[in-house]
Hints:
CATH architecture: Alpha-Beta Complex
Strand content: 25-35%
Number of helices: 6
Distance between the termini: 25 Å
CATH superfamily: SOS response associated peptidase-like
Low-confidence stretches: 232-238
Number of domains: 1
Strand order of the largest sheet: 2-1-7-8-12
Order of helices and strands: EHEEEEHEEEEEHEHHEH
Mean pLDDT: 92
CATH topology: hypothetical protein yedk fold
CATH class: Alpha Beta
Amino acid sequence: MCGRYVSPDEAAIEREFNLVHQEWQFPPSFNVAPTQHVPILREISGERRGSTVRWGLIPFFAKGEPPKYSTINARIESVETAASYRGPWQRGQRCLQFAIGFYEWHVNAEGRKAPYHIYLNDQPVFAFAALWERSIKRDGAVVESCVHITMPANSLMREIHNGGGNPHRMPAILMREDVDIWLKGSVDEARAVLRPYEANLMVAYEVGSAVNSPKNNDALLLRPVGIPSDEKILIGEYANHGS
Length: 243
């Protein structure tokens, strides 16, 4: 976890994070999946630069080839020591991975897995605390990629994310006031802002099973279970809560 999320378009990111126009352009995605290119923001030579990179970190030593193990989430317990992540962590290669919400699956008493959409009620566009890396293929092509950090869940996410091989976890979501520290603070300062987001600032509701397939990618994925399928109401009340 977190293995699927909702990302905004470039205009929403620039507006919410007070960015001057960046050299990027992309639509919102309602079902971002691993290996896809996603928007990030990083600080390079004193400038904040927006980019789109592969979600799923490719270590510099892998010569541009994706590893056989998953690198979409870096556990906070081992991000400083794991071979794939300790390099970018020590070099301060931190970035923001943008979202307006994310999905997690809950296992009910009957064993049925139901997807939930989770978003924040105090940040319409928010950032996962993430790391980026650059790896060079044998032919000289450069591959840039990212991974976001996960941690033990807060009370809300502990209840929702109760199944799978790594239950009771959540992404490290940055408070707005901690963004600057994450991007350009010291290693110790950055480590200090990694803490579970407050449960009372998060909203969660069950959505339909269409989100299970990354082939499905439209605003209808955000329709809460039990709400009549009125597209105008849906898009106004749910799909655009981050715009």
